[in-house]
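Quick one: structure for this chain?
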Amino acid sequence: MPADPTPESASEALARDLYENHGPALQRWARQRFADNQVAEEVAHEAIMNGWRKHHQFDPSRGSERAWMFGILRNVAASRHRADARRLRVVPTEHVGVDPSEDGSLERIAQLSLVADAFAALSEDHRAVLVAAYWDGLTTKEIAADLSIPDGTVKSRLHYALRILRTQLEEQEVL
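Got it. Here's what it folds into:
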């Protein structure tokens, strides 16, 4: 008579359940935000691992497990984007096309740099709603559900984030 396979531990079952229940949705979301599918998969897997490690912090009274996992995924993705932004990338000269000094692009690059600096100076909460609204194209209700915060808080954060950006860009004479 063959021996019974080793019973799965509760920890292993939790990891498997998180992957089976949320993995495909997390990977789809990550693939929409990262050009490299390998990076998207790494981000989704890291989010699942973080959810598994911190599952004791999950509070069902604050929202669904799916929303909680997406919150973790957004944090992992934001960390990855910040890390990637710090790295210089080599761009082959055939991709550059024109000399930036010929068409005023240097001024545009300087302005974009100031916009990026102003955006980076926002709090994480303000950046999250701006990215969700303007980059991801989500409605305030969708953002509220994803971030597990009230719709009014999303609207308030959007208002103040845009106001802060406008003030900083006016001070830098970008606007």
